[in-house]
Amino acid sequence: MSTLTIHNPANGELIIALPADDAESVAAKAAAARTAQPLWAARHLNERLACIARFRAGVVRDLEQLATTMTRETGKPIRMSRNELNGLLPRIDFFLGETPQALGAETVHDEGGMREQIQHEPLGVIANISAWNYPWFVGCNVVLPALLAGNAVLYKPSEYATLTGLEIARLLHEAGVPRDVMTVLVGGGEVGRALLEQPVDGVFFTGSYATGQRIAETVGKRFVKLQLELGGKDPTYVCEDADPQAAAESLADGAMYNTGQSCCSVERIYVHEKIHDAFVEAFVKTVRGMQRGDPMNEETYIGALTRGPQLEVLQRQVEDAVRQGAKLLAGNATPLAGPGNWFEPAVLVDVHHGMELMREESFGPVIGIQQVADDEEAIKLMNDTRYGLTAGVYTPDEARARRLLARVHAGSVYWNCCDRVSPRLPWSGVGDSGVGLTLSKYGIQAFTRPKAWHLRSPA
Ligand code: NAD
Questions:
Q1: Quick one: average pLDDT of 306-330?
Q2: FRET partner for 443 with CA separation of 20 to 30 A, picked from 210, 246, 433, 457?
Q3: What is the rounded average pLDDT of the residues 330-342?
Q4: What is the pLDDT of residue 409?
Q5: Is 229 a catalytic residue?
Q6: Can you give the pTM of this predicted structure?
Q7: How far is the CA of 206 from the centre of ligand 1 (A)?
């Protein structure tokens, strides 16, 4: 049997070597899920809701241990690990409160003895292949509504967040979800590929564009539901009437939180020329004040990068930008010395769209700030991307923000805020940021098939 070794990205130390899945075990788990799913779906919704409520209690009870596990395997600063787990609780509450209504049968017509109804049936057995950067959020955005809707879940957490994936399953099993209804598959891309060989009824993927494209090619031939939540190159425009200090502090956090490894991290900033210099000064000062160090330290804001290979991407982007005339006002192109994956937060100005830094996802603590002359130039640059996850505008003028944001191609738009996800709103991307959605009532219905009922009562 093969093994998956898990290392601490902050110091390179081996945490554990786990037995990994292979094609045979994946097939056996998928078959067991197929058998178990109808019984789970036949249970009353209240029983499934009670399981998820008990799961929530388990998260609260074990929060400190879960945060430590996540920090050790991902390098996420411990305060942010706690924030993620605490932020999960209102998401669970949303699912618990919203699901009965979202899944309730709807009578859409009732006249002359003829009734028409929509009923939400579970898809069946679904595959969830996931990312590591917010493993509780991205895992639970799929797993919880899928289970509540009566599906069985084959969950392949990222190889960089497997211990967290196993904890999610442990707590669900302790809460009463049958083992074969919630199954974890351990391993990397090859286990994800083996999972896609199975006759699943839906594939829900969170990860990079490159992997998403491969998955779409594989799954596209079979007519099953496919959702892809992919990366972004999220822009923000700071207008001349914005407060440069407040905008800089907010956007520095949006760019650097979780060491820049958020799908909705601010990745490009456009600033009106009238306040550009004041904004940049405040931004650089804020970034310089961010404490980098041991992710287990309570004061740490910048932790280790989870994936070593990303260091090369960041170095390449910064070097390319500097070669083309960008000025590096904070940080460095070269990664810091190991052990572990460390990169000093980098702030670049005098950037343009000929640079990879302004076109391709950085997914790290690196940001380009570009000066613009007016709203038209800002909109043109914001839309000059193949991605479209989020975008924002900072201005005190709501009408102006609405006018601008209506013209930006993105799944979510922000006025005077950034890097924000709400369980009440749909989370989706346009263009190469993906297809489908999670969260909101639509992100619960996403795990169902709406069945049409035509019912004629006898005369
Ligand atoms: P990744 O694409 O490298 O890996 C994602 C998952 O796919 C992992 O579990 C991996 O093992 C698996 N995988 C790899 N190759 C596979 C294959 N051929 N077949 C099946 N599965 C395969 O992405 P990552 O590094 O884990 O995550 C970072 C990316 O995720 C970033 O681009 C980020 O923007 C994106 N992301 C998007 C969202 C969103 O909501 N849109 C949320 C979080 C992360």
A1: 98
A2: 210
A3: 96
A4: 98
A5: yes
A6: 0.97
A7: 5
